[in-house]
Amino acid sequence: MEITATYATISAVPQLDLWWVLLAPLFPLLGFLALALLPRRLRNDLRFVPVVGVAASLAIAVAAAITIWPGGPINESFYALSWSLGTVGSLPLMLSFSVDSLAVIMLIMVSLVGLCVQVYSLKYMKDDERIGWFFCIKSLFLAAMLAFVLSGGLLLQFAFWEVMGLCSWVLIGFWYKNKAPRKASQKAFLFTRAGDVGFFVALSAVFVAAQSFEFDQIFATAPTWSPFLLGVVAFGLVWAAIGKSAQFPLSVWLPDAMAGPTPGSALIHAATMVVAGVFMLVRMLPVIELSPAAMSTILAVGIITALYGALLACFQKDLKKVLAFSTISQLGFLFAAIGVGSAFVAVFHLTTHAFFKALLFLAAGIIIHVTGTQNMRKMGGLLKRMPVTFAVFTIGAFALAGVIPLAGFFSKDEIFKAMLYFGQDTGQYAAFIGVALVGVMTAFYVIKSWLSIFFGKPAADIDKVHEGSALELAPVIALAIPATLLGFAVIPLGGFLDYPSHWPPLYMVALSTVIMLTGALLGFVAYVLSKRNAPSNRFRFVIAAAEQRFYLDAFYTYGVVKPYFWLSKALWQFDERVIDGVVDAVAWIYQKASQSLDWLDNRIIDGVVNGAAWTYVLLTRLTRVFDVRIIDGIVNGIGHLSISLGGRLRTIQSGEVQWYQRLVVGAVIVVLGIFTILYAVSTLGGA
Amino acid sequence: MLVNFDSVGLVTVLLFAAALFSVGLYGAMTRKAAVSVLMSLEIMLFAISINIVALAQFIPGAQMYGWHFSLFLMVIGAAEIAIGLSLVVAIYRRIKTSDVEKLQVLKDHE
After folding, report:
1. pLDDT tens-digit map of B35-88
2. Tell me, what's the pLDDT at B55?
3. Chain A residues close to B108, C-beta within 8 Å
4. Which run of H or E residues covers position A6?
5. Which residue in the set A88, A650, A654 is minimally distant from B3, CB to CB?
6. Could you tell me if residue B5 is inside a domain?
7. How far apart are CA A332 and CA A309, in angstroms?
8. Is residue B110 part of a domain?
9. Could you report the per-residue pLDDT of A163-210, keeping only the tens digit for each?
């Protein structure tokens, strides 16, 4: 295998020898490999090993950021390592890793969130008998995600994309003994797989069009592709991202994925894996931008998903479900930002969202542990009991709602601004109105949930409730720092990605604060009303529709799953009626034929046979005397021998097929061993 | 379109096929569920298929016969699995389980 470090011939950024950045995915991978093969007890005891692994990755990521400072444009790599896997026809099949500014930002984000979640899990999952396996899988996931962002080509990206899907499946179904996690993991796996079909189609089209999977060559040749291939690639990738990032209409798997352990949800289904789709679109933006239809689709999907997720989050009683729908809605924002071509805005909100949403999930995990419920109506009055959790949850919640000056405010503001500019350029303000509405709804559900968790009348068994442990709170507090301060980094972060970012203009600050306050006020009113009155019946049908998640799940059940069963049943009935009918008819004819032959047999053949038999009986009586005396003596001797021998041999006759199989394999191994020894002896003798 | 993996080497491929065969053999000997046993058998079959293709690729003068044979093996595999599955269904109807460890009618009961 030939490995070469290649440097782009024309590049705006300096070429550095950054081979050590590629060690970032290696450490979590080693953490996984070290633990995966150990027995369970030992693995549980060594669960700190993957934590050390991801800490090393974080150190590498920070060092990489310092080395490449002041950054460079997205997709301009500072260092690339490529090697050839072989040839396809006459074309080399290249794989490569490359380091650019975007990859470094993602490295820091993923390893920081990963480290916080791993440390948090040390305490949170302490009582689980398979905690070692939990750390193992999360470590594999982190390795895949870090390698994914460093991939220099679509093929390698796809490979790590699939590894992440596998880890997600394992983690959702981590408590596989219960039915709900099992079903949720299958659902998530199948829905993301439906999206991956798009990735696969796009991969094929890319290789036809660019004759390579490498990003450099894809971007260089993309303007010359035929419109058909371009469309296939763009829409295939968009469909893949819709599946991975839980966008409408493939969004239904994400809320169910909350059946897994909370730290897993925080890492995979809020902060990192679900943004892989968005990251891939940002990477491939130079290609997707060439197809205006694909861009409009991304924008429309993003706005619809943001509205759908935010609207459903307003109706949830379950704390984790609120966060899940909120994640869907925020991912819709990221899509919308890509849809108007603002890669930086998408990356900025992606990063801030990762921090504050991971924070919210981890804080929610503490609350769920101490209260023993996920239902927010059974919480209340937690403020005095757990002040530290209250403080960090408030930071996360307010960042999500977009309260100035938290990180979420700045990044959401960038999205509002991008939509407003898009409206000014094209005269279409629907996108802006959509995101503004989502902003109102976000503040609404955030404030309503926040009030009902921490304020009001305490729940009945409040005495048991206490503050979370230090080991759980420390990572949450660590996440609160970027969730608070990252917004102020808008200019350096823009500079790092070579994007001219500015402070939000004053009228945008005012506008988004008005949007936030409107939602917050409505949320407060809704909270007060829900405390005072019984829920009104007037909106019953809306609530019913929301509880069914606007029938999207029902659509898949009745539109895809049930018809499949009907088809199977119809085929089964065909088999039962037609095929079996033919078989029965043949049997009936055969039976009739046998009956007529039977008659012939009784009358004629039997007469002949009986006559012969009588003759034979007479002869036999004569030979009997000889037989009993002599032959039987010999036979009985042999019989006794056989019985005693058989009694021993029949212990190996267990009746189990696999036991016989093991005997055969054992025998083969013995015979092979004998032959090997004979061969060795003859060779040595010959020499 | 021929994929040329010359750089990998015959021994690597044969070792891989041997590893795959061992996985299948282990599965066939240890899995309880009859369907898993059938899957293990298929894994073994395809390990053989990989061997054939690899030898056809690496041994000079072997031409394309090995490749054709591997296609033939796939068809045989499909037929075999169809028979196997129908046996599993028949067994299940008779004794209401597909656990091969429960299949002990050949045992001498006394």
Report:
1. 999 999 999 999 999 988 888 888 777 667 778 888 888 999 999 999 999 988
2. 84
3. 650, 653, 655
4. strand A3-6
5. A88
6. no
7. 8
8. no
9. 999 999 999 999 888 888 888 898 899 899 999 999 999 999 999 999
| Tokens 């900025």 -> residue | A348
Is the pLDDT at A436 greater than 50? The verdict is yes
Q: What is the dihedral sign for C-alpha A530, A535, A541, A545?
A: positive
Distinct helix (H) and strand (E) counts, chain B: 3, 1
Read off the tokens for A599.
Answer: 């008659």
What phi and psi, each to the nearest 5 degrees, are found at residue A387?
-65, -35
Is there a domain that residue B3 lies in? no
Distances from the Cα of B20 to the Cαs of A231, A390, A467, B45, in angstroms? 40, 54, 52, 10
Chain B partners within 8 Å of A661 (Cβ): 28-29
CB A61 within 8 A of CB A107: yes
Interior CA angle at A268 toward A186 and A473, to 5°? 130
Q: Which residues partner with A559 through β-bridges? A: none
Q: How far is B14 from chain A (nearest CA, A)?
A: 18
A665 contact B CB<8A: yes
Q: Tell me whether residue B105 is in a domain.
A: no
* Partner residues linked to A91 by β-bridges: A88
Q: Residue B23: which domain range? A: 10-99
Contacts of A11 (CB under 8 A, 6+ apart): A76, A77
Q: How many angstroms separate the CA of residue A161 from the nearest CA in chain B?
A: 24
Q: Report the percentage of chain A scoring pLDDT > 90.
A: 39
Rounded to the nearest angstrom, the minimum Cα separation between A144 and chain B is: 23
Domain of B65, CATH number, reads: 1.10.287.3510
**H helices of A151-175, where?**
154-172
Sign of CA dihedral A380, A386, A389, A390: positive
Torsion sign across C-alpha atoms A295, A301, A307, A309 = negative
Q: Is A83 exposed, middle or buried (0-12, 13-18, 19+ CB in 10 A)?
A: middle
CA A156 vs. chain centroid, Å, equals: 17
- C-alpha distance from A92 to closest chain B C-alpha (Å): 10
User: Which has the closest alpha carbon to A244: A320, A180, A188, A206?
Assistant: A188
Contacts of B107 in chain A (CB under 8 A): 653-656
pLDDT at A7: 43
- Report the residue count for chain A: 687
User: For residue A285, what are its two tokens?
Assistant: 């933006």
B2 contacts A655? CB cut-off 8 A: no
Calpha distance A667→B80 (Å, rounded): 25
CB pairs under 8 A between A and B: 45
Contacts of B2 in chain A (CB under 8 A): 89
Q: What is the C-alpha separation between A325 and A557, in angstroms, rounded? A: 20
Query: How far are the Cα atoms of A80, A312, A386, B12 from residue A95, in angstroms, in the given order?
Result: 10, 42, 51, 20
Query: If you average pLDDT over every residue of chain A, what do you get?
Result: 87
Q: Beta-carbon neighbour count of residue A76 at 10 Å?
A: 17
Chain B residues within 8 A (CB-CB) of chain A?
1-8, 25, 28-30, 37, 100-101, 103-108
CB A498 within 8 A of CB A72: yes
Domain count within chain B: 1
For residue A658, list chain B residues with Cβ-Cβ distance below 8 A. Answer: 28-30, 37, 100-101
Sign, Cα dihedral of A243, A245, A248, A252: positive
Residues A79, A64: Cα–Cα separation, whole Å: 11
To 10 degrees, what angle do helices A131-150 and A154-172 make?
160
- State how far the Cα of A200 lies from the Cα of A151, in Å rounded to an integer: 17
pLDDT digits (tens, 9 = 90+) for A291-327: 999 999 999 999 999 999 998 888 888 889 899 999 9
| Tokens found for residue A34 | 């070290």
Structure tokens, A330 = 């925020």
CA A428 to chain centre: 36
